[in-house]
Predict the structure.
Amino acid sequence: MGGYLNISFILPCFRRAAWLRAALPLNEHYRSPDVEVILVLDEPSEEKEVMAIVRDNPGIRFKVIINDWQHAWRPPCIPINVGVRHAVASHIAILSPETMLWMPHPCYLQYLLSKDWRPVYGGVLWHVTDAEPTDGQDLMRGKLCAAEAMRAPSALGFGFILCQRLSFERICGMDEMRAYYGGDDDDLRQRLVMTGHQMMIDPNIRIFHPTHEAGVSRDLPKDESKPTRVMYHQRETWGRAFSRKIWDWSKL
């Protein structure tokens, strides 16, 4: 397998195997010939479960990178950066493994990229409270899509980001010093805007995210820190916290 890739999807995983398995059939864009899907396991407890999912989906170009340090939940900044370090596509897309990304066509993101490299794209987010990973593909799809008809979106521009990989690298990625819940995606977007990019909310990118707290402590304080222009403290080290790769589509 080989060829030029447009998008590397970065999925930071912390005990999300059941949700990942349920969401994969709902994300047809993962099977596009010019994308790869990078699963970054931030702790090792679900290695066997994730590898079973990978083997059950041979039509997806997977990379799987794992952190052997078993720890409590933390913001996904470090695993996202690790994933970007292993990405080879011209652009990266960051989202949660349990998220369903609905678009008019599986190659819609590639169409956006053909227009201009400069924008940073986000979409329209719905949080869904009654979906379960055991629902099965059809039922889960129905519950997620029904959220759009039942109520207004939860937020604009959150739950997903699409940008040029080199732009992400120039700002040294996510802030790996963050230790609190929330604020990490705001910081990333604002630093990209500071470096000349334009945030675009595309209503055709619809994000359905099951609401759950797998491993997230609600006692964690909310991060209210302001964005910084350049992360000098991590210019050389970002994305290098761990690197054990247990699957790589390009080596098959």
